[in-house]
Fold this sequence. Notes:
By secondary structure, the protein is an alpha/beta fold. The strands form three sheets. The chain has an eight-stranded mixed sheet with strand order 1-2-12-11-10-9-8-7. A two-stranded parallel ribbon has the order 3-6. Strands 4-5 form a two-stranded antiparallel ribbon. Strand 11, helix 8 and strand 12 form a beta-alpha-beta unit. Helix 1 packs antiparallel against helix 11 and helix 14 packs antiparallel against helix 15. The longest helix is centred in the C-terminal third of the chain and has 22 residues. The protein is globular and about 60 Å long. About 40% of the residues are buried.
Amino acid sequence: MIKMENKIIAVAPMQGYTDAPFRHFHSAIYDGAGDMYCSPFIRVEHGEIRRRDLRDITSEFNSGMNLLPQIIFRDLDEFRRLVEAVAGAGYGKIDLNMGCPFPPQVKKGRGAGMILNPAELKRIVSAVNSYQEIHFSVKMRLGVTSPDEFRGVVPLLNEMRLEHVTVHPRVAAQQYGGELYMAQYEELRDALSHPVIYNGDIISPADINAALSHGDGAMIGRGILARPSIIAEWREGREWNDSERLEKILQLHAGIFDHYEATLCGDAQILMKIKPFWDYLEPEIGHKSFKLIKKATSVAKYQSAVATITD
């Protein structure tokens, strides 16, 4: 996280996007724009902790980076297994996901679903407080279907030893669109005894200032994918022009692409990993190039499509 005037800025965890190569090259190209990056959540799947999640937080790309690993869990057993695995990987801080809105996770009681299970959360509170050597934080939403559901867990959150609580002022059912429930957000912020970081709809440097007015910091998610320079621009106190933004976007892409080309086997694997890089960047590169990139069926065609961005 970046602390400026006692405010905090962080880069949010996003499955399929902000993995170790992205974090590494983003930090390098934008001069450490995100001094703390939160890893996509580490989870239990088919009874086992996903190995690729652990590989992400143990990658050499994390060297020298202030990385906050995040875990998602449905009960005390999963919580303990995940905490022990992350601590075993050498981390002394862990973020607890109570905000994931994706139905497959919520229906199983994970992510935002944990808000509706205060009995299980109470058990987890005791476990959190028993790990004296680990610093915990929480990322959450206001509820699953109602923005008032958070009220049932506020006392439990206040019982936990937490560094901060990041709040997205929507409910899980909304995913990432629709009304922001700012009145409920402010109620939650004021009721918590922990620092509160604002998360949601931060897509421009000006939005960072607005977010900071609502809490003790800002966590930027999809805004970093659509405008990777957003934090760097905010720190400089000016908005970059189109060519400045595009130059850095292409540098960021080149670093990530070269890594995948050197480490993955075959065009299909490379394209599967690199194409999502552009998902939110159509306004920056134009519809024609965006469409060509998405249609590319080989690395050669993909590289030709990327080359059209600067034609």
